[in-house]
Structure formats: structure tokens, C-alpha cells
Amino acid sequence: MRRALAGIALAVTSMVALSFLIPLALLVREQARDQATTVAEQRAAALSPVLALTTRRADVEQALGEIGSPDRLAVRLPDGDVVGRSHAPRSALDRAVEDRQTLALDTEDGWSYLQPVVLRGDRVAVVESWVPAADLSRGVAASWGVMALLALGLVGGSVLVADRLGARVVRSSRSLKKASLALGSGDLDVRVEPDGPPELQEAGAAFNTMADRVVDLLAVERELVADLSHRLRTPLTALCLEADRMGPTPSARRIAEAAAQLESELDAVITAARAPLAVSQPGGAAHDPARPCDVSEVVAVRLDFWAVLATQQDRAWERYFTPRPTPVRFSPDDLAAVVDALIGNVFRHTPVGTAFAVRVERADHQVLLTVDDAGPGVADPEAALTRGVSVGGSTGLGLDIVARAARAADGELTITRAPMGGARVRVSFSLAPERG
Predict the structure, then answer these.
(1) What average pLDDT score do residues 112-124 get?
(2) What is the CATH number of domain 293-430?
């Protein structure tokens, strides 16, 4: 922007300077010529009264010496004799005598002014005043140089002023850009000092207002999440009591384990909600890159949990785990939540008895987690991946959470048709370096 403003200032100022300089330069040259010719005419006019009194050669020579240099003044007497040095052509002198008209003509070495003087007896003498070519342009070059320097000074000054103004605008724009990137990266305390033109000052003030509003909304949302999580403790406690009343049965044990896990998740949600405000990672899932986990191990554990419910609902299920290690930069708890969301969708959105399969594979520096089912499939995959939009009576958050988690691990989520006839949901994770 600074370069553009400087270029505009240079172009505009140069055009303005040239539009004034060219006519002014011509005027200066004409002024110098007019001044030199006026002096020559005055010298010729001063000699005319002398010729009216006398045409003797000695008197005329004396008058020439008193009025000006004999090299610049000459007189053609009525008898044709020339006093001084004549620079005009003889034909011009003859025409001045015959026509008795004042003549001005350019010669090879200057400019001549011929003024006829009519004497008694109808005789005619001609006074010639000559101006050297150097005198016609005396001072013109110096004047042009001064004007050129002034023009360069004006152009340079305008470019400098435009550059300073552009620097101010650029500085304000860069400050606003830097603050926007910092806010987008999670620095909720960043603010800008409104500076620059009024428009950028307003933009800076609007940015600060937006940042304050974002912090307030995040605080309100986190408090709401914490409150809702806390309210879930009441039915959870009742569920635990009911499990205790059922006695030491396998069903009671599974209910107690599920309740304990749910309570642990609620504690984690409340702790995260009460923590200082911070923006989660771009994918939306918080994970510790220093603690990679093995996808096959986590999926196997979660499948053991869901296998009990699948047996109760007469669901046939298959699983395949690659024998190769499948480490990813993802925490085990977050990955377990992803697996639960995928398998839970099968149980929630397919009829009882619908078969499903879970596969973990490695391909092209990625780990692929695939869940297939034999249900009705997903009619609108794009709508299913839209946060908050339900295509089957759910909250519409499950697949969005999985997709955000996949993006956090440099992967993606895709929904297609499974070979089993239903939906195929595939999540890819970037493969983490194996520990030595």
C-alpha cells in the first residue's frame, strides 16, 4: 500500500509540475529575449536624435562610443557609408532605406534591429542595434535549473508525505491483522490501540468490542456447560443407587461401571469449564501431542464394552485390527469418545439386530478407523456432518465432534455407502512417529 500511495503521489505531482514547468520555462526564455531586444531598441532610439542633428562621421562615432559598444551599434549614413560594425545583411539595410520601416531579423550570430531615420532633404540613415545570441538566452539555463530543482523538491516532498501517510495506514492495518491472527489462535487478551485514519480507528474499536464480546460469550457458555454437567449428577446418583439395590449381578456391575465412567467424564467437563478461558485447537478436540496412543488398543477396549449390548440386541459384529502399530497424536480418552460416538450411532440409528463391523488399518502415513453397518444408511451425509442438525432424532453433535477430532489429528471424516448396505463412516488420523 505504501508503494501504491507513493506511486500515485509521484504520478500526480509530476503531471502537475510538468503542466506548470513547461509553460513557465517557455515564458522565461521569451522574457529573457524580450529584455535583450528592448535594450537594443532603446539604444537605437537614443541614437536617432544625434543623426537628426549631424551625420558627420566623427560625431556619429563619438555618439556610438557614448551610447554603447561599437560592436553592437552601427549606422548606415545616407551616402551609404557604415559607421561601426554591421551584422545585418546588406539587402536588409537596403530594404529599411527603401521602405522606411523598422525591421527586426535573426542573424547567424544574434538578432539585429534596424531603425530608419529620415533626415532633411528626404535622406535616410539606418541605425542598427545588434544583440549576440548569448544575450538572447542569458540567465535562461540558470532559471530552468532552479525551476527543475524546485519541481524535484516538490515531487520528492509529496512522495515522502504520501509514504509517511501510507506507513501510518499500513502500520495500523498490520496491527489489526496481527491482533486478529492472535485472537484466532486463542489469545483472548489481545486488543489493538485504534490508530491511523478514522476508518481504521473505527475498525480497531470494533475489533476490541468483538473480542470483549467473544470473551463474555465463552464465559457464559462455559458456565452453562458446568451448570448442566453438575445437574446431571442427580440422575447419575439415582442410577448408582439403583445399581446398588440390584445386588452383585453382571447387569448391576455394567451399570456401575458405566455410571463411574460417566461421572469421570462429568468431572472432566466441569474441570475444563472452570479452567481459565482458552480457545481449543483448530479441530475442536483438546489432545496432548506428547501422549500418543494406539488406535487398535483403544478400539479393542471400547468394542469389549459395546459387545455386551450388541449381544443383548442380537447384533452380529465383526472387527479387524491391523497387526502393525497404529500410534496417533491423540489422548486415549478423546479417542475413546470418538469410538463411542461412531458405534453409538449404529445402535441409536439402526434397528435392533442390525449387524456392524469395525476396522482399524494403516495406509499412506495414516490410520483409518472404519465403522460399517447394514442399516438404512445416511441419506444426506453433508447434513449429517452439520453441527446441531439432526437427521435421525439425535442432537446432531456426534459426527461433528468426530469430524473436529479428526481435523485436530490432521485427518478427516467421510460418510459413504458400506458394502454391508448401510453407512460407512471412516475417520483418518495422521500417523505419529513410533517410539524407539
Answers:
(1) 85
(2) 3.30.565.10
